[in-house]
Model the fold of this input.
Amino acid sequence: MIRRMLVLLAAAALLLAACQSPAAEQPTETRRLTIMGHDSIEVSEEVIDAFEAEHNAEVSILKAGDTGTALNKAILAKDNPLADVFYGVDNTFLSRALNEGIFEPYASPLLEVIPDTFELDPQRRTLPVDYGDVCLNYDRAYFEVQGLNPPHNLADLLKPEYEGMVVVENPATSSPGLAFLLATIGYFGEDGYLDFWKGMVDNDVLVVNDWETAYYSEFNAHGGTRPIVVSYGSSPPAEVYFAEEPLEEPPTGVISEDGSCFRQIEFVGILKGTPNRDLAEAWIDFMLSPTFQEDMPLNMFVFPVNPQAKLPEVFAEHMVIPESTAQVDPQAIEANREAWIEAWTETVLR
Done:
């Protein structure tokens, strides 16, 4: 009897082994995860390597132009997505992205530690990753030599002593240019921002197409002739970090009082139709973790939304965080963005 039972058990074990899928006995194949976004995406190689090793994945970064261009490409391809994840849509384009329905909701457990002020999508189709403040920067040395105080806020720019000093980016072609336009709308209101820009034209404002031209060609601190430029609150620590000779303080200052800056918040979302949903979720969790968040400041010069992430010393020492920023509702931006840009163009360039 016992011998018969042993025979039956052995047969059952052989049958179970025969029924198992051959794939289950082989190592899992490496999967490819594609992250799509704007051209400013920069991630340290060792950080990507850590994710790839943990998840047996190969991560590919698809840079698709500036924020608006990249988003347009994602929208046009929403029925046949170009990537698994889209990173870099900010609050100036957020409503458009959500209205187009290109993202799948995902409530990452890491959201528990991120301040609610950064979460602008209650359905969690997009999750906040980083933020940065678009502010006016000024060349400290220029104002010291001239014996002139820098402007205190946006309204000061219209004073005659600042004539011919300011360079800005075109909001139709530049993300910081658009953010600064929104700062003026938040500061002066829809009824007053065009009057401000008329005054800026009278005060000889210079308009260029992109941040690189404004900052590295026209800004006085880099050989240009304009001592005030639209840039970021993170520009001073960047100046110190990249300086050829050690600096005790940044050569640039930031005009950040009275809501003179506009806060850009960047988001990430899972693109609808991804065949790698679980891997996409893991990537978003990774982006919100301290490992990724601590890598961003010295690569993309943005601030982490996870308060558990430690800032590099150069950031902690020289960063400028405005006490208050200009407020413009994302829905209002979506409804009026093109009209505001057109009105600005008519006022400033024509």
